[in-house]
Design brief:
494 residues, 18 strands, five-stranded mixed beta sheet, alpha/beta, 15 helices
């Protein structure tokens, strides 16, 4: 598995040696687990409180979209984020690209309630993101109905004036030329060569390619039709191409359309990646696949030490192991368990919301209020009215500033309500267990670690204080297990 290292030290009580120490531990951990380190991201003399100010951290988040690594390895989780809200938000961003956060020093990423609390915060953040997106889309729909440009989107042949599209008389002839050449029998390659040789650029200033030519030939805006969310509105902007020319181009496009190439089957995700370990040698277990003679792809989980002939654990079928883990989660996820989880999370939220900073700020507010009351009493008996009035005004400004700081601190550590948390976890009971995203969400939220032996599984679940053992009985190529709760088995060290 490819991973990157993220290291950071703050400006007080730490220095470059701190970075060297973090890197040393991370490299040793990666070697032990069989991870391949492909990059380092290091923020020096920067606090972890404001994630948006950590330039290397933000670069790492951005690079995750390139899908070149599957894990971010940190010395300890506090190097990644200093509060659960930031941790949940940025873990969610990484998860979109199949990237997980790994800790070199902590056996389990966090305590069970903490992990579940992050899942709630992440879900809430996603809800607010979706809600904001819906509001934006509503605004875009209104603009579309009026024929207004959405987000300043550039279209070759048009200019935007007062939020409306108007014909760009200098560029519109290029659009007409493209339609004429295509209808006359020129191939897309010939049109592209003609445009690029004449140094003609797309609306975004790039060279033309097949996709950009196809987008122009199929864009109904050129005949005055504004399409948004499947709804077409005619005569919404001035025409550059007449209806007949556009119709002929569509006929030719349809005629020249080749049978679509057979899409390559998308490889299914290995849902237990970074959470499953070998019960015999404790090395990480990785996803592998192979193709049989008839072309069918078979997917397995295999001990990473097995490749080097250091472990005897045989590969096991991916679908069977994941199915057992998913069914285990759904078995223990009862109404009673959800109430217990919600209570634990709310207690943790209450505890973590009362920070030293918040306590100090609240104390300062009380002192400010006492001082203000004393000044008002002095004012009532007629002492130095002008001076005392000025002091009262100063105290009021100080209080406003303190209250603003308190509000910011509370945002960083939101206090969760029982019904709010319960509702979040109740949604898991109604989920589609066949949906790949739902299955991944179940594992991400509730599974801490899975240890695989040749004849059994040990599951460490965030919703369960005890461990769960599932015997594996091989029958006709399939595994059938039954759940046995055990409390005497300690988690293996990693």
């Amino acid at each position: 598995m490819n991973v990157v290292i993220y290291a950071r030290f703050s400006s007080h009580s730490q220095n470059e040696q701190s970075i060297e120490g973090q890197l040393k531990v991370c490299y040793e951990f990666a070697k032990q687990k069989g991870y391949k380190i492909i990059a380092e991201y290091i923020d020096r003399a920067i606090s972890g409180k404001e994630a948006e100010n950590r330039l290397e951290f933000q670069r790492m988040i951005s690079d995750s979209a390139k899908r070149q690594f599957e894990g971010v390895l940190v010395y300890q989780l506090d190097r990644f984020a200093r509060n659960r809200y930031d941790s949940a938000i940025y873990k969610s961003k990484l998860k979109k690209y199949g990237v997980r956060v790994l800790s070199a020093k902590e056996n389990i990423s966090d305590d069970a309630s903490g992990i579940l609390m992050e899942a709630v915060l992440e879900g809430m953040a996603e809800y607010y993101s979706v809600e904001l997106s819906q509001k934006i889309k509503r605004g875009m729909s209104i603009n579309a109905e009026k024929g207004l440009a959405i987000g300043g989107m550039k279209i070759l042949g048009y200019k935007i004036k007062d939020k409306r599209y108007v014909v760009d008389e200098e560029v519109a002839p290029i659009v007409k030329k493209i339609f004429e050449m295509y209808i006359a029998g020129n191939t897309m390659a010939q049109i592209i060569r003609y445009l690029n040789e004449n140094n003609v650029k797309t609306a975004l200033g790039n060279e033309f390619g097949k996709n950009s030519i196809r987008r122009i030939l199929t864009n109904k805006k050129y005949i005055g039709v504004y399409t948004y969310k499947g709804i077409e509105r005619a005569d919404s902007l001035p025409k550059i191409i007449d209806d007949e020319t556009f119709r002929q181009a569509q006929i030719k496009l349809e005629k020249n359309k080749k049978a679509p190439a057979r899409a390559k089957a998308k490889e299914e995700m290995y849902l237990l990646s970074t959470k499953i370990f070998c019960g015999h040698c404790e090395a990480s277990i990785v996803g592998v696949s192979g193709t049989s003679r008839n072309g069918k792809v078979h997917q397995y989980y295999q001990c990473s030490s097995n490749r080097k002939k250091k472990c005897t654990l045989k590969p096991v079928k991916k679908s069977q192991i994941e199915e057992l883990v998913i069914k285990t989660i759904m078995t223990i996820l009862t109404d009673e368990k959800i109430d217990q989880i919600a209570t634990n999370i709310c207690n943790l939220s209450e505890k973590e919301s009362n920070t030293d900073t918040l306590t100090r700020l609240k104390k300062l507010v009380k002192e400010n209020e006492t001082a203000t009351q004393n000044l008002i009493k002095a004012l009532e008996v007629g002492k130095a009215v002008d001076i005392i009035s000025a002091q009262i005004e100063k105290r009021q400004l100080e209080k406003q500033n303190l209250e603003a700081q308190i509000a910011r601190e509370k945002i960083l550590r939101p206090k969760l309500q029982f019904e709010q948390v319960k509702f979040f976890f109740k949604k898991f009971l109604d989920g589609d267990i066949t949906d790949i995203k739902f299955r991944q969400a179940l594992i991400d939220t509730f599974i801490s670690k899975v240890y695989l032996f040749q004849d059994k599984l040990y599951i460490l679940c965030n919703a369960q204080e005890s461990k769960i053992e599932i015997p594996l009985h091989e029958t006709s190529g399939s595994y059938k297990g039954h759940l046995v709760e055990i409390s005497g088995i300690e988690p293996l060290t990693s």
